[in-house]
Amino acid sequence: MISGLSDVIRSNGAPSARNLLVTVFGDALLPHGAPTAVSPRSLAALLASFDVSERLVRTSLTRLVNDGLLSVESVGRRSYYRVAPAALALFERADRRIYGPLHPGWDGSWTVVVIDATEGSTASRSTLRQELAWAGLGTVAPNVMASPVVAAADAAAVVDRVGGFTNVLVTRSQVVEGAGTLSADELAHRAVELGAVAGRYREFVERFEPFAEVDTGAAEPELAFKLRTLMVASYRRIVLADPLLPAELLPDGWIGTRARAIAAAVYDRCADAAEDFLAATAELPEGRLTAGERAGRFAVA
Known about the structure:
Blueprint (H helix, E strand, L loop, with lengths): L16 H13 L10 H7 L7 H13 L3 E6 L2 E6 L4 H12 L9 E6 L7 H14 L2 E4 L2 E4 L4 H11 L6 E6 L9 H8 L2 H19 L8 H19 L15 H27 L1 E2 L2 E2 L13
Antiparallel strand pairs: 1-2, 3-5, 3-6, 4-5, 7-8
Helix pairs in contact: 1-9, 2-3, 5-6, 8-9, 8-10, 9-10
């Protein structure tokens, strides 16, 4: 089963080179420390099994630097890339959503963000809404976004990071239910289209469940790294678009819970071999990387 991964390349469903690189930096390199910087040549070697060329890696790296997600430093005649200091908070928020507790305790409160429709341009408001959506808030009305799990301080930090706004309202409070008011369940249904999210989780389950029971301990390190990277990149795209409602607001037998269990199982099964390949391949200014965190990356609860 694991050998079948050699046929999974970008042209038949694997994520883009950009998404793969963001996954490598967030999942594989950042746990070794924020200053960890690697060469384009070694990044191309890490993604060679996806049929991603070094030229495409370099082009994608340049775009990620221009987007503020990565920074580049020169050591002699060589360049090394790392997560940009200004983007560390963004990676850390994504890390919590991907690997943190799936259904943390909920006190019944909601974080609500109201964007002044007269402030800024259409483009700037659209950018802010997109950034808030990536942070986990759902749209419940025009220029109104909400989440039961995103902290108000985190939402305010997104507004500050986007910049250019002074009149955005960010608050957190209980929903007061009455004959003429929205219930928590209705607010949840407005915040996220559960049917669409469930469909994406089902596709993930169908694709990766076969690997959750496979013993990958003897797999080639490169294929183990490919499986881990492909799985995390695929899961990442779904979970970062999922507002991650509390268990109380989800239907019974929610498919996202099963998808999370499969993600954790696949990750743990290929963790050792994947880290061995990473350590043997990643080139740092000071030399090679030391193999680090292996199984247990996903929170149990």
